[in-house]
Specification:
The complex is a heterodimer of chains A (512) and B (324). With 512 residues, chain A is an alpha/beta fold. Chain A contains 17 helices and 22 strands. In chain A, strand 1 and strand 2 form a beta hairpin. By secondary structure, chain B is mostly helical. A two-stranded antiparallel sheet of chain B has the order 1-2. In chain B, helix 1 runs antiparallel to helix 10. Classes of the chains: A alpha/beta (512), B mainly alpha (324). Chains A and B meet through helix 1, helix 2 and helix 3 of A and helix 8 and helix 9 of B.
């Protein structure tokens, strides 16, 4: 069983795995070449993570075999995987926050019953690794004090320290800023150049196009195709992923903006004496119009949404619906809803849903006092369930089972539940935050289409998103926020450079 | 002057004796809770151990056999807790409370039916107890001012378990911060998933932590019934397991600080005993009950106000479920 030259780093043959009735992986065969970056794309729930968990020993495949460098491998635990030279960088980092970088790296590979000798040796090795791959982090820094990008480097170091030849990265850029993602890709390129094999799992097609050599597309537990990246287009990949043609650009009909529905005047939140997280923000949204708020995350967009959503009262300024001022004192979420406003919060886990609650219960949250859900002093469970079933069906939530807890739906389907709840109460004004964060590509299209439908029906929509592409695709006007202020307004057609300059706080008014 | 020194020496001496069971139990809890298994059952384990020590020492006439029995009884209860909380992912508080109730009921019942002394175990002869060890020259130095008090009263004249308790503190520190087991223990209490993905069994690691807890609680219980006293008395732990838990939080789950916290609680207890029957100026006689309550009141005050934010191990109380 000697290592055969030219044998692939990983060969999977006929891997299948079921969880109860759900067939997460079906007869998957895949070969990953040594010294390459191999991308695996697929929508959420396509089975990417299950496949990688099998490779890393979290799960056992029901059928099929794994060969590592031409040798059959029996991977039953993560320990087996590590021994076979597989390292994994998980989507949610597997780090111990109060530990130092060094302690995190040696955990599980301490090199003896006591720590001292292993620590000294590891420190030397770590410094060498950092130098070789440009993974600068101080070995003695506490992990909790590191940025997300640095923490990810610690994860990569952990794998390299265990002499991994094959590195699996699961959605590595989800938590990174664009600059950090670029840095990561440079590191991955370097790893490939030194002969390591990298498997990149992602649902971001641009990343696949930018960095991988080959790409495998997964759909509903199967690998539908494996292609050379250079031979494939973004559109083709998207189509393979979803199984039908995807409109990368949604059709936007012209809708004549009507009367002003929503107006904010001089909204200000003073954080400290001279620090304002919102600084005199004034804007109007008209009927049949989507106003997009662009900006780098953390420039006051969240605060603005919270004020509009009635979630905080520590502001000055006015919020007006159809010319009527809502007093801060009454601008609780309830009052907001009573005035024909709806709010899709940025963070659906924390604010939009109660995760352990059933979908049907989540479908009425905030509206649960309405008469149609009551029967005497009790909630009318039958009415709630039939109401929820209708919503799930109309919003194509999968599976359309109102009894499932919110936590058991995928990100995209969770978001659809929130949207169904807010949209179906027919508000005049909608404040929507990050509607497609963590949502797969098919659902993104669906959500965008729904937002445009609402616009066509004469609703006023305020859209906050960190995805500039999304804002460009949907908005009629783009308002850019920087440091709590509105620094400019432009049409979606202006160049990236112009919007970028505004987002960076360089106060050049673009010629609109 | 000499009187004051003697009095202080006496109080500190008694504080040491009173803090030993707290220290054992506190360090026991440290192992368990660092691995994220909350242990409200320290009290029950101590009580079970105290009974086993008293009973076996009375039957065999050997203090060491008593100690072994204590460790065995306490470890068995610890494993029960582990079985409920680690293997079956049960609620750790409920399991701990159950252990306390089982221990309180079972010791009283077994004691009454085996020895027919109303739940007590027979009074032990000195040969079946851990007796104070006199250090060489303690007698001779006793008269020397200060040095005599320190050497003869404080250092010399304790039983072997007291010295063991003192040695357990640096030992625990070393285990926690300088060994592989300690590193993994601290890691599993913060992020068990990190330990799992590093190829280490979370379950086995937590079981080992729980066993460490059981062994140390065994020492605590044995100290109560066959070192400090000469028999097991019904409910003789009297809340010491809970005080130890308070000390653990006060010490923020760190061994050296645990020594300080336990000694402080021991000192409060010792002072309270001293103050019984003493008439205070202006106030006059203070009811005994109030003086006895002082350590507990101070416990509440200390925990409420003086600890600052005590951040427990992040994964504390949460059973590990592999999810992916």
């Amino acid at each position: 069983m000697a290592e055969t030259a030219g044998s692939p780093a990983i060969r999977l043959d006929g891997i299948s795995k079921s969880f109860g009735p759900v067939r997460a992986n079906r007869d998957i065969s895949l070969a990953v070449e040594k010294g390459s970056i191999h991308g695996i794309v697929g929508e959420n729930g396509a089975g990417k993570s299950t496949l990688m968990s099998i490779l890393y020993g979290f799960y056992q495949a029901d059928a099929g075999s794994i060969h590592i460098s031409g040798r059959p491998a029996n991977i039953r635990t993560p320990q087996d995987a590590i021994a076979a030279g597989i390292g994994m960088v998980h989507q949610h980092f597997m780090l111990v926050d109060p530990f130092t970088v060094l302690e995190n790296v040696i955990l599980g590979a301490e090199g003896g019953l006591t720590l001292r000798q292993g620590m000294d040796q590891a420190r030397t090795e770590l410094i060498a690794l950092e130098r070789d791959y440009g993974l600068e982090v101080s070995p003695d820094a506490t992990v909790s004090s590191l940025t997300v990008g640095q923490q990810q480097r610690v994860e990569i170091l952990k794998a390299l320290f265990r002499q991994a030849d094959i590195l699996i990265l699961d959605e590595p850029t989800g938590v990174l800023t664009p600059a950090e993602a670029d840095h990561l890709f440079r590191i991955l390129g370097q790893l490939r150049d030194t002969g390591k094999t990298v498997i990149l799992i992602t649902h971001k097609l641009r990343e696949i196009m930018a960095i991988t050599d080959k790409v495998s597309v997964m759909r509903q537990g199967e690998i539908v195709d494996t292609l050379h990246t250079k031979d494939v287009s973004l559109e083709k990949l998207a189509e393979l992923m979803v199984g039908r043609r995807v409109l990368m650009q949604v059709d936007k009909q012209t809708v004549d903006a009507g009367e002003c529905v929503f107006e904010a005047r001089d909204l200000t939140i003073a954080k400290a004496q001279y620090v304002r997280s919102l600084d005199k923000v004034s804007l109007r949204v008209h009927s049949g119009e989507i106003v997009g708020i662009a900006g780098v995350a953390g420039n006051g967009q969240s605060e603005l949404l919270e004020v509009i959503g009635g979630m905080r009262s520590d502001y000055t300024g006015d919020i007006m619906m159809r010319g009527r001022t809502l007093r801060p004192a009454i601008s609780a979420p309830d009052a907001i809803r009573a005035n024909g406003m709806a709010h899709v919060p940025e963070d659906r886990h924390r604010m939009g849903l109660v995760m352990p609650f059933e979908a049907s219960e989540n479908c009425i949250l905030g509206y649960h006092n309405e008469d149609r859900y009551q029967r005497g002093a009790l909630l009318d469970r039958a009415a709630i369930l039939s109401d929820a079933a209708g919503k799930l069906e109309r919003f194509d939530v999968r599976p359309p089972n109102p009894h499932l807890p919110a936590s058991s739906f995928s990100g995209g389907n969770q978001q659809k539940i929130v949207l169904a709840r807010e949209f179906e109460h027919d508000p005049d004004f909608l404040a929507v935050g990050q509607p497609t964060r963590g949502v797969d590509i098919g659902a993104i299209e669906f959500i965008h289409q729904h937002l445009l439908d609402m616009r066509a029906r004469g609703k006023a929509i305020l859209l906050v998103s960190v995805e500039l592409d999304e804002i460009r695709a949907l908005a009629d006007r783009i308002v850019v926020m920087f440091a709590g202020r509105i620094v400019g307004e432009c049409l979606p057609s202006v160049s990236d450079a112009q919007i970028g300059a505004l987002m960076a706080g360089l106060e050049a008014e673009p010629g609109v | 002057m000499a009187d004051v020194v003697a009095l202080i020496a006496l109080i500190i001496d008694s504080a040491i004796r009173l803090s030993v069971p707290l220290l054992f139990a506190c360090l026991a809890g440290l192992y368990s809770e660092r691995s994220s298994i909350f242990d409200i059952g320290l009290e029950g384990k101590m009580l079970g151990a105290a009974f086993a020590a008293g009973a076996i020492a009375a039957i065999t006439g050997s203090a060491w056999m008593g100690l072994l029995a204590a460790i065995a009884a306490s470890s068995a209860l610890a494993l029960l807790h582990g079985f409920a909380c680690i293997t079956h992912r049960g609620n750790q508080i409920v399991s701990g409370v159950a252990i306390n109730i089982i221990a309180a009921g079972l010791t009283a019942q077994l004691g009454a039916s085996w020895f027919s002394q109303g739940g007590q175990t027979p009074s032990l002869p000195n040969t079946a107890r851990f007796l104070p060890l006199e250090w060489p020259g303690a007698e001779a130095l006793a008269g020397v001012p200060l040095i005599g008090a320190v050497y003869s009263e404080l250092l010399s004249g304790h039983n072997i378990l007291v010295y063991l308790a003192a040695a357990t503190v640096p030992l625990t520190w070393w285990v926690l911060y300088r060994t592989r087991f300690g590193l993994r223990l601290r890691a599993v209490g913060e992020n068990p998933a990190a330990v799992d993905t590093a190829g280490i069994s979370v379950t086995w690691l937590r079981y080992r932590a729980v066993i460490c807890c059981g062994v140390l609680c065994g020492f605590a219980g044995a100290y109560l019934s066959i070192a400090q006293s000469a028999s097991f008395i019904k409910d003789m732990t009297a809340g010491k397991g809970f005080i130890a838990l308070a000390a653990l939080i006060f010490a923020k789950w760190r061994p050296v600080q645990a020594l300080g916290a336990c000694f402080l609680f021991g000192l409060l207890d010792a002072v309270a005993i001293r103050l019984q029957g003493v008439a205070f100026p202006l106030i006059g006689d203070v009811p005994v009950q109030f003086v006895q309550a002082v350590p507990y009141i101070l416990t509440v005050v200390l925990l409420a106000g003086f600890v600052g934010r005590a951040i427990p191990p992040k994964a504390g109380g949460v059973p590990y479920v592999k999810e992916r």
